[in-house]
Amino acid sequence: ALAGRRAVVTGSNSGIGLGVAEALAAAGADVVINSFTDTPEDHALAERLARDHGVAVRYIPADMSKPADCRALVEKAGHCDILVNNAGIQHVAPIPEFPAEKWDAIIAINLSSAFHTTAAALPMMQAAGWGRIVNIASAHGLTASPFKSAYVAAKHGIVGLTKVTALETAAEDITCNAICPGYVLTPIVEKQIPDQMKTHNMSREDVIAKVMLARQPSGQFATVDQIGATTVFLCSDAAAQITGTTISVDGGWTAL
Ligand code: NAD
Predict the structure, then answer these.
(1) Is the ipTM of this complex over 0.95?
(2) pTM of the predicted protein model
(3) Which of 27, 102, 162, 166 could crosslink 243 through cysteines, CB 3.0-4.6 Å?
(4) GO molecular-function annotation terms (predicted)?
(5) What range defines the domain where residue 190 resides?
(6) What pLDDT sits at residue 30?
């Protein structure tokens, strides 16, 4: 269904970004995957995706904490029909102890990068007369948790950016939406488990069941495949009138 479309997915050598890249490739899109690491494994991953799905896949390194890199990623892609702003990091600490450089890095990677990639991609989409922008926000784009000040601020910010992008493109065949996942068991979540074990003085199993999934009424993690399929749906003709909004994939978290 997406044959002939070119997708750029930021932060896509692991986790949700990789799941989204895989789903877009399976739907027939050519894909640019990205991270800042530029390892042989990153390039091998692009080759593997291309082989598995019979589409063109390129790995382009770019550091999403740097505005010039964000714009260069889209320029180097050459064209961008589908932009998925996914790169993100997390840090958990009470506000008085929250390192200022962590705040700056989270705002840069989780929020500002999407502004810069969108600024570079929109003229391409406008010239082509078609475009889809999917911002990977979070349940934390709609609600808050203690100790995640920068993350919650950045995710609320990207929901705001999503609405403005949608309004500026509403008269064209371009949409912009945000997906708000609840907990998905990816490396970013794995890394939080030791901190949460310390903060709550709990075992790994208890942190998963009583802290993380306590917020998720389904009692289950969402999966990267589900976020990928939701992205493909937002790129489909059925979703052409869906713009400027959020889709929660959170097992009921934000209904609580
Ligand atoms: P992850 O750690 O597996 O993936 C993060 C990705 O971002 C990686 O590919 C990494 O290489 C990339 N990245 C990090 N810093 C970068 C930088 N400076 N430049 C370029 N790439 C960079 O985590 P994930 O869970 O897959 O997270 C992906 C997105 O989904 C994030 O925006 C995250 O906030 C969001 N999210 C995750 C969950 C969850 O429970 N896992 C829930 C809601 C939202």
Answers:
(1) yes
(2) 0.97
(3) 166
(4) 3-hydroxybutyrate dehydrogenase activity
(5) 185-221
(6) 98
